[in-house]
Design goal:
Blueprint lengths: L1 E6 L5 H13 L4 E6 L11 E11 L2 E2 L1 H9 L5 E10 L6 H18 L2 E9 L7 H7 L4 H11 L5 H15 L1
Parallel strand pairs: 1-2, 1-3, 3-5, 5-6
Antiparallel strand pairs: 3-4
Bound molecules: flavin mononucleotide.
Length: 171
Amino acid sequence: MKILITYFSQTGNTEKIARAIGEVAAQDNDTEIKKMEEVDAGTVSGYDLIFIGSPLHAANLAAQVKTFLGDLQSGASKQLAGFITHSAAAYSDQDMGGFTEPIMTACKDKGIEYKGCFDCQGFLTEAIHDMVKQSQNATDEQWAEVVKQMTGHPDTEDEAKAKEFAREVLS
Ligand SMILES: Cc1cc2nc3c(=O)[nH]c(=O)nc-3n(C[C@H](O)[C@H](O)[C@H](O)COP(=O)(O)O)c2cc1C
């Protein structure tokens, strides 16, 4: 299979998951892993499968990823799967359905089979801890708990789950 794994990642979390998926995909396939900035979505064509990765930004896919999805052409790939990292510990299926909607819509519009989306936690950059702490009205103790909880993610368990997802998509 000809596979493209492309991702947007500012602090390395989504990139870590891209590499985990890449390890599985590369075993028996012609696999490329590229930062989204290095890919011209309009010229992508002829893949059997594309994995697209995004961090969650304000309860949305990153703007860059939405643009990329909009620019993909019908012949880009036969199949497409997503992966998302977010600093919240977990989201409900309903919330995840909302976040992945732009991926599903792009697949539908371009006649690409949607193969599902993996998600896991990813440490929030310290640059915006104060802002998020304030927006959540969290006390110092509550925030310390949040930081403790997200520290180290994506961890080896998250990577193992991402690999399992990749195996399912490829099976
Ligand atoms: C501007 C901004 C907005 C974010 N919004 C959310 C959000 O709404 N929900 C959430 O769980 N995480 C949010 N995060 C956290 C990131 O999704 C998370 O840390 C992700 O793993 C970052 O991935 P990256 O290292 O690949 O960029 C936000 C991060 C940034 C920088």
